[in-house]
Amino acid sequence: MKCPNCDIALMMTDRKGIEIDFCTQCRGVWLDRGELDKIVELTVEERTVAIKNSQTNDWRPAKSDQARQYVESRDKGRKQYKKRDSIISELFD
Question: In what order do the strands lie in the sheet with 18-22?
């Protein structure tokens, strides 16, 4: 097939299963019937996969937040005992 602008033979390449004809002189690109639809479908699929991948990355708190939450949850169920008086305070009572 010849370039409609330059009248030289077009080069053909295959990208992701889509045949693309291009001119090496004017750098024009020509697609056969239905190839533009395939490109649009691939773009939508890639976008969908990228969105799903970004949504599966769960947000996790920083390590300092995790440690703080652990300490708070560890002490949550414990009974609060009265602090013992020191021996010195007992002597002066």
Answer: 11-15, 18-22, 29-31
CA distances from 39 to 29, 36, 42, 52 (A): 13, 5, 5, 20
DSSP state of 2: B
- pLDDT tens figures, 23-52: 999 989 888 888 888 888 888 888 887 777
Whether 25 contacts 11, CB under 8 Å: no
What stretches of the chain show up as alpha helix (H) in DSSP?
Answer: 35-56, 63-76, 87-91
Fold topology of 1-56: Ubiquitin-like (UB roll) (3.10.20)
Residue 70: its pLDDT value, please?
Answer: 59
Are the C-beta atoms of residues 36 and 25 closer than 8 Å to each other?
no
